Structures are given as C-alpha cells and as structure tokens.
Amino acid sequence: MDPVAFVLSALPPPPARVLEVGCGAGELALALDAAGYDVVAVDPRAPEGPIFRRTTLAALDGPGPFAVAVARFSLHHIHELDAAVERIAGVLRPGGKLVLEEFGWERVDLRTAAWLAEQKGGTPEQQLAAWRDEHAGLHTSDDMRRALDARFEERSLEWRPQLHRAPGPAELEPREREAIVRGEIAAVGFRYVGTRQ
After folding, report:
1. How many domains does the chain have?
2. 50-94: pLDDT as tens digits
3. Could you give the maximum distance between any two Cα atoms of the chain, in Å?
4. In a domain, 110, yes or no
5. N- to C-terminal Cα separation, the chain
6. Is residue 120 part of a domain?
7. Which residues have a Cβ under 8 Å from the Cβ of 33 and sit 6 or more positions away?
8. What are the CA-CA distances from residue 13 to residues 8, 23, 142 (Å)?
9. What is the pLDDT averaged over residues 19-25?
10. Is 156 helix (H, G, I), strand (E, B) or coil?
11. Is the peptide bond before 65 cis (omega within 30 degrees of 0)?
C-alpha cells in the first residue's frame, strides 16, 4: 500500500480536520486536500499555499482541535520528542488519531548490513558503520514507541521495508520485502496508528 493510500485508509471520512507534522514539499497534504480533508500542514520549509504553515509544531498558533495528526518520517528528527508527542496529543480531539510512518534505524544489525552490502557494495561492516554514522543522534523506534505509549493507545503497528528508500535500483523494495519474509533481515520501517488516551 502506497503512503497516501495508507494514510487515507486510517482517516475518518472527509471533511475531517487533519494536521500534518513535518510536511516537507507537501505532496501528502495536497493529496489529502484534494480528497476533501480540511488540512493544516506544518514545516519550517513548507511550500506556499493556504493549507501550509511555515512554522514548527511547537510554534503553531491556535491549531486545534484536529480529528487526525499525520507524521511521516518527521518524529525521529524532533529534538524534544516527548514535548512534541504531548503537543500532538494536545491538538487532537478526544479519541483523535495519530497516523505515523517512521523507521527504527537501530534495527539495522550486521545481518541486515550484509544484505545492504550485497545490494549496494562494500562490506557488511562498512555498511553498518555508514548507516550508524548517518543516523546517529536520531530517535530510535524504542524512544518513539515509549513516547507514543504514554499518550496514545496503539491500534495498529506494522513493521515493513524501509532500506529501499535510499537511492538504489527500482527492484530493491521487492527484494527487501522478500528478505524480511524469509527472516534474513530486520524490518526497519513501521506504520503506526494510535488514538489519543
């Protein structure tokens, strides 16, 4: 299921109010807007447009309440993780949902790095060191899950392919998925849906 379809599958019917945290270039926000949702998308580098706010989650003025908050690959970057998750919970209406797509970079072990080396070159040790260097200082999946569990009730969690997102051949995702199914490598990406406690 592609990212837009995943998010849409977790949303109530339009025109529910949706907050996107860390919208980047705005593709998801625009797709949700086109589907009839009342969208506010925040990012310090958000594009121009009526649904976008060039600000941080912490500095967003008078935003709530929202039926759903969506965060795709932004939570692991936020310095004050607990405060950010608390803020997200605070702008949701009672029973509101958080729809999250993230990854647990710490799950890449030597076995998974060996698979990366087969796909991209180098040795397993080189791939593991490069991966750890690239992601040092980011929140782990355990950090994120701990913050989420304090404020949300988990409704679904799916571990899934993530490594293919780095530049590589187009067929890398099916290879990664097959390797996960065979138990050869760790699933690094995850999709989470929770409701505000």
Report:
1. 1
2. 999 999 999 998 777 999 999 999 999 998 999 999 999 999 999
3. 51
4. no
5. 28
6. no
7. 39, 51
8. 9, 21, 31
9. 96
10. strand
11. yes
Q: Is the peptide bond before 13 cis (omega within 30 degrees of 0)?
A: no
Tell the residue number behind the tokens 């760790």, with chain if given: 186
Q: Do the domain assignments include residue 61?
A: yes
Cα 144 vs. chain centroid, distance in angstroms? 10
DSSP 85: H
Note down the domain range covering 8. 3-104+139-168+188-196
Averaged over 153-167, what is the pLDDT?
Answer: 89
CB 138 within 8 A of CB 104: no
pTM score above 0.90: yes
127's tokens: 């791939």
Q: pLDDT value at position 98?
A: 98
Name the β-bridge partners of 152.
196
Beta pairing, strands 52-53 & 189-196:
unpaired
- Reported confidence tier of residue 166, pLDDT bands at 50, 70, 90: low
